Amino acid sequence: QLRLVESGGGLVQPGGSLKLSCAASGSTSGYYAIGWVRQAPGKEREGVSCINIMGRSTNYLDSVKGRFTISRDNANNTVYLQMNSLTPEDTAVYYCVVDTTGLCPEEIIFDYWGQGTQVTVSS
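User: That's the sequence. What structure does it adopt?
Assistant: Structure tokens below.
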């Protein structure tokens, strides 16, 4: 099965930046879309961003447009989320997710999930 391992989370002050990484390993018999979903305590999950097999990005969340950038390195099976101008509202567990159709879904439904990495934005 596909394994997703996130890294790069941590504590950052408001206005700061973090770069999350997700490395995929295991069965990759086909191309896939990969992205990020976040969940704050007591809140519903929010799709953040997704990048499909063509390298086209989809932003699910208006509040992160212009601040977050998703990219992928197919040679290393790795996806990144560059997060700038962070605010306390960005505090959440960020999950790396995969859709094996290769397309970014309209709904927050993915075939594989990572364990998540904690992002905390606080002064």
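The radius of gyration is 13 Å.
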